[in-house]
Automatic annotation (TrEMBL):
<feature type="signal peptide">
    <location>
        <begin position="1"/>
        <end position="20"/>
    </location>
</feature>
<keyword id="KW-0732">Signal</keyword>
<dbReference type="InterPro" id="IPR024618">
    <property type="entry name" value="DUF3857"/>
</dbReference>
<protein>
    <recommendedName>
        <fullName>DUF3857 domain-containing protein</fullName>
    </recommendedName>
</protein>
<dbReference type="Pfam" id="PF12969">
    <property type="entry name" value="DUF3857"/>
</dbReference>
<feature type="domain" description="DUF3857">
    <location>
        <begin position="70"/>
        <end position="197"/>
    </location>
</feature>
Length: 656
């Protein structure tokens, strides 16, 4: 969301660094007479092996006030099987325009020595889900044992920050990354999730920062883990300009905080007056406390104004025009909220965050590219607001934006001058107890004892409610019916839905954390089987499908639960007249984990029998969002405890 804004700031700053004349870029080359490489037998079971993964960016002085950036990639892949063929028969390029392509070459080397070269006419356009267009070309004639080789160079939008993911699901034998720039510009490269030395040299007036490494193992996706965030990656940034006599570090966090503050606070006197009129019209200044004011402002803006990420022009994001057109981009919506909060004397900080399933904001390494999403922080309440998410309400933000670092742009005033200073620290999520996925179900046998009538309520609060509010508020009637049908099938194992209602769907309900309640009544025979005179009740299925974790491979990554939460289930079963249950003890499971004496996760199920009423209580809870890999074995026991309960079958026998 915010990258276009940062690019603008960077381009404006780049003028200060440029004064040399244009020089040609370094060109990539390949072997004119390639042969198939001999691969170690330990890779025989891999679908493909990446023999070479060479990447680089080069910055050149185009003119007195412009720096160009070029990106080059060179790869050689050995194909072992059909999956490998499928994975590499299309090559995706990060290019949108033919004019950006400086050079491109690709070839397929067959085991018999034949070489099939790329026909550049086969380069096609493809559109992603966000309507972005990229170039793609097909590699023809791939077969087992062949090798794919390609390299390309293209001109890209200049940015002094970047990121390279240098690990994937296939092993990579040899990797390198380098940054070439005019001598005066010094880039820093920092590895994440691994260690590699970085060299910095000057050759023929060009500064080269480079790292090279070997034998990167393929990474498997694991349950409850952030695959992309845990992959090996390199991040880089421009840190110094030797022309600058002060030796000041460039693009530090304070610089960004100051620029963001100015950008989001840049309201004219006329706009400030219009904001005051808006406040008066809605009576916000008369509300009793800050929370009431924040909630009222947010509900009004999200009901009245449309947020459009595509609105990036300056004139589209001035408050005067936003109030008139009821439409705003990222900068405009931040200015509108900020202007209102300031007029109401509500203390706030602008905060920039990222999505922790991908990257994070590093206090020690100022990669502005990781600051994707703007939110508001209110220090008096220690709460957050997500202005660009119409589906969220204070104090709830998208859960992946929290439990990770944020850049707090803390407002400070000296006389009549206001600015911001930066602080990088965690964005805490709301307490685990406020997010729940609960079940309340009553089950009664039909007279013929071959079916159950199930009256069930599923209750979702906090972060767990967000997806359901979205699903129901942004769906048509047929889609809503399909959602309810799917839920009934998963939890009641029935398509015989007798009644349904969904309560507390308005987004405003989230502020007071009213639960989304999905209330259904259904009839099902799927939970009952007969075994002679016995009835088998598959009670465990009433909690819905559960994840099993019986993996053989050693766990590689820590656990991420998205958000801490509880799953409390109350199941009430009316036992048929004349029957008794023989294996009630199967309902008792107790698997918990304490960290330094404090319960952090657990699955506990128990029961109480009152006459012919069996009441089962289950409490499954994960009080933390993140668990270190050292606690994975205990985490797995708890996940599997819920799976074990899922398999519980009660045996009902006639009384003798």
């Amino acid at each position: 969301m915010i990258k276009q804004t940062l690019c603008l700031l960077i381009v404006l700053l780049s003028v200060n660094y440029v004064h040399a004349q244009a020089v040609p870029i370094e060109k990539e080359k390949w072997t004119e007479k390639p042969v198939i490489h001999k691969i170690d037998s330990k890779y025989d079971k891999e679908s493909a092996v990446i023999l070479l993964d060479k990447r680089g960016v080069e910055f050149t002085d185009e003119s007195k006030d412009m720096i160009n950036e070029y990106y080059t990639a060179h790869k050689i892949i050995h194909i072992n099987d059909d999956k490998g063929i499928e994975s590499f028969n299309k090559i995706y390029l990060g290019i949108s325009e033919n004019a950006d392509i400086v050079e491109i070459k690709a070839r397929n080397i067959l085991p018999n020595g034949k070489i099939i070269e790329l026909n550049k006419n086969d380069i096609k356009d493809i559109k992603d889900k966000n309507d972005n267009i990229y170039k793609i070309f097909a590699m023809d004639g791939l077969e087992k044992g062949c090798e794919v080789e390609y390299y390309y160079t293209f001109k890209k939008t200049t940015s002094f920050f970047g990121r390279e993911i240098v690990q994937q699901n296939f092993p990579i034998l040899e990797s390198s990354f380098q940054i070439i720039a005019p001598k005066r510009l010094k880039f820093d490269i920092k590895p994440y999730n691994f260690i590699v030395p970085v060299t910095d040299t000057v050759v023929d007036g060009k500064r080269i920062a480079k790292c090279a490494f070997k034998d990167t193992q393929g990474a498997d996706e694991e349950k409850y883990a952030n695959y992309y965030a845990n992959l090996r990656r390199l991040e880089y940034k421009l840190s110094y300009n030797e022309v600058n006599a002060t030796g000041e570090r460039l693009f530090n966090w304070n610089s960004l905080a100051k620029k963001i503050y100015v950008l989001y606070s840049d309201n004219s006197e006329k706009e400030i007056k219009e904001i005051a009129d808006l406040i008066k019209k809605n009576g916000w200044d008369a509300l009793g406390d800050e929370t009431a004011k924040i909630t009222a402002v947010e509900n009004y803006i999200k009901k009245t104004f449309s947020y459009n990420e595509g609105l990036k022009n300056e004139d589209e994001n001035v408050v005067e025009r936003i109030i008139q057109n009821k439409n705003a981009g990222t900068v405009g919506i931040m200015r509108l909220y900020g202007g209102i909060f300031q007029a109401l004397n509500i203390k706030y900080h602008f905060v920039l965050t990222g999505s922790r399933d991908k990257f994070f904001i590093d206090k020690e390494f100022e990669n502005w590219d990781n600051c994707d999403y703007p939110i508001f922080y209110f220090p008096a309440e220690n709460k957050f607001l997500a202005p660009t998410r119409p589906d969220m309400r204070y104090p709830w933000i998208y859960s992946l934006w929290g439990a990770t670092n944020g850049l707090y742009c803390k407002r400070t005033t000296l006389g009549t001058f206001s600015t911001a200073i930066a602080e990088v620290k965690e964005i805490p999520l709301e307490n685990y107890s406020k997010s729940a996925q609960n079940i309340e179900a009553k089950m009664v046998f039909t007279n013929d004892l071959d079916s159950l009538n199930i009256d069930e309520k599923q209750l979702f609060t906090g972060y767990a409610s967000t997806g359901y509010r979205n699903a129901f508020n942004f769906s048509n009637e047929d889609q809503k019916k399909d959602i309810i049908k799917d839920i009934t099938q998963r939890y009641s194992n029935s398509e015989n839905l007798l009644f349904s209602e969904v309560l507390n769907l308005p987004f405003e309900s989230q502020s007071s954390n009213l639960p989304v309640i999905i209330h259904t009544k259904a009839k099902t025979g799927a939970l009952i089987e007969r075994a002679g005179s016995k009835l088998l009740l598959k009670i465990g299925m009433a909690i819905g499908p559960q994840v099993e974790m019986y993996q053989q491979k050693t766990r590689q990554e820590p656990v991420d639960m998205d958000f801490g939460h509880v799953e409390e289930r109350n199941l009430e079963v009316t036992i048929p007249e004349g029957y008794t249950i023989k294996n009630l003890s199967d309902l008792k499971i107790n698997q918990t984990y304490k960290d330094n004496g404090e319960l952090t996760m657990g699955f506990v199920s128990d029961y109480e029998l009152k006459g012919n009423q069996l009441v089962i209580h289950i409490m499954e809870e994960y009080r933390k969002t993140l668990y270190p890999i050292t606690q994975f074995a205990d985490f797995r026991k708890i996940i599997n405890a819920s799976s074990d309960f899922n398999k519980v079958v009660l045996v009902l026998e006639k009384k003798s």
